[in-house]
Amino acid sequence: MTPAERTLGRRRAARIGACLAVALASAWSSCANGGGTQDLEPAIAETYEAEGGRLELTLDRSSLTTAESALLRLAVEADEGVAVAFPDSGDGFGEFAVERDEQVSERLLDGGRVERVREYVLQPFLPGEYELPPLTVTLNGSDSISSEALTIPVESVLQDPETADLLDIAEPLDIPAPWWWWALGTLLLAVAAVAGLWWWKRRKEKLSAPRVVPPHEIALTALDALLSEGLLASGAVELFYLRLSDIVRHYIEDQFSLRAPEQTTEEFLAAMSRGPHIRRDHQTLLRDFLYRADMVKFAKFVPAAEETGGAVEAARQFIEQSVPTGVLSAEAGSG
Q1: How far from each other are the two terminal CA atoms of the chain, in whole angstroms?
Q2: Under a CB-based contact definition with an 8 Å cutoff, are residues 138 and 108 in contact?
Q3: Neighbouring residues of 118: CB distance < 8 A, sequence distance ≥ 6
Q4: 121, β-bridge pairs
Q5: Stretch 143-165: mean pLDDT, rounded?
Q6: Does residue 31 register a pLDDT over 50?
Q7: How far is CA 71 from the centre of its chain?
Q8: pTM above 0.85, yes or no
C-alpha cells in the first residue's frame, strides 16, 4: 500500500468515527428528553382558555388498534400561586383504561406563570368508536377548565374480526393418577380409621371403668358413720373404741400393706418401727392412740368425754396426714 493510499484510509476512518460520535450524541439526547415524544408533532392538539388559566390537550394518536395505547398530555398554564388539580386516573376517561398516570413536569414561565404537565397512557380493549369525555382541571378548588369530548376510532388487529377462524376452547385433559397415589391414599385412610377406633375404645374404657376408692376415703367415711351411730351416748364405750381401732388398723393394712388387724399392738408397733412406711411423728401419734384403745378394751378403762374426743381426733389426724403424696396428686389430676 502506497503512502497516499494509507493517508486516504486514515481520513476515511476519521470521517466514520465522527459520524458515529454524532449518532451516539443524538441518541443520548433523545433518551435524556424522554425518548423525544415531547418534540413530536401530536396527532390531536386542542387549547381551552378560561379565567385564571389555559389548558392544552394533546394526543399522540388520532386512531389506534386494540394492541396499541395512546399518550394523553394535559398542560395547564396558570399563575404561580394557583393550585391545580388534574383528573384522577379512575374517573372520566370513558371506555379507556388508564395504564399510567403521572405528573411529568412543572416549569416557570414569564410573567410569574407556571406550566404543569400531566400524562396519561390510555389503553382500549375492543374495537369500535371510543369517546374520550370532557376532562376537567380545577383551579384553586373552585374555578375549572374543561375540554371537549373527542372521538377516537379503535381498530382490531385481526383482518376481519367477524369471520376470523378462532379455535374453540379445548376439552379438559383427563390425566390419570398413578397407581401409587391410590395405594397411598388407601393406606392413610386405613391408618386414620385404626387410630380413631383405638382412641374411641380407650375413651370408652376410661369413662366406663369404676373409680377405685382410696383407703383414706374408706377410713374417713367409716369414721363418720361410727360417730353418727351414737354409741358413746348410749354408754357403749368399749364397743366404740373397738370399732375405732378396727377402722385405723384396716386403713394401715390397705394403705401400707402391714398386717395390722391380725397382730397385737406390741407386734404391730415393733413391725412398724422397723419399716420405712410410716413417718416417725405419725408413729408416735399412732402408738399413743393404740395404747388408749387397749386400755379401754382390756383394762376396762372408762375415759372421760375429752379423752374420747381426743382419740377420735387423733385417728382422723393420722389418717389425713399419712396419705402418700402420690395418691393426693393422682386424685387432684383426675379431678
Answers
A1: 113
A2: no
A3: 73, 74, 86, 101, 102, 103, 104
A4: 71, 100
A5: 81
A6: no
A7: 44
A8: no
